[in-house]
Amino acid sequence: MATDRKRVRMGQVVSIRFSMTVDGGEQHRVDDELAVYLHGHGNVVPGLERALEGHAKGDVIDVVIPPEDGYGPRKKGGLRRIPRSSLAKDLETTVGTQVVMHSADGDVRSLWITGVEGEDVLMDESHPLAGLTLRYRVEVVAVREAHVDELLHGHAHPPPS
User: Fold this and answer.
1) Which domains, ranges and CATH numbers included, belong to the chain?
2) How far from 91 is each of 34, 84, 87, CA to CA, in Å?
3) Is the predicted pLDDT of residue 157 greater than 60, yes or no?
4) pTM (predicted TM-score)
């Protein structure tokens, strides 16, 4: 762990490169571009955020995150069959697409498309990575103080162009 560099902590904007595999070793994601997030604001899974705490630019860590510290357990009874006609006409119905829906009682729910059968779109309330153990290799590329507006909004903002 770094000793004389700015460390990852609450309210820092952190830039990382990472690869992630899931149970069984399936490669799920490799980023060539930077992922930038505001530390301590729930912008990455809890287990990864805790693992990065105290690290600094140049550190490379390997971390195993159980489901309860990642995307949670799979939700029982979370599968839905929704008529395509009840969804926005321009909605991309690609498997894995996240859709935010409002229930009749005003609750906001995230669902993920798992398939399309005829005129129906199949959706699941569980994140596609729910119930899986995640294995990350992460390089901390940069750490900086967050701007006031980033702290107010709860996420990192892209640099001005």
Assistant:
1) 12-72+132-153 (3.10.50.40), 79-124 (2.40.10.330)
2) 27, 9, 7
3) yes
4) 0.80
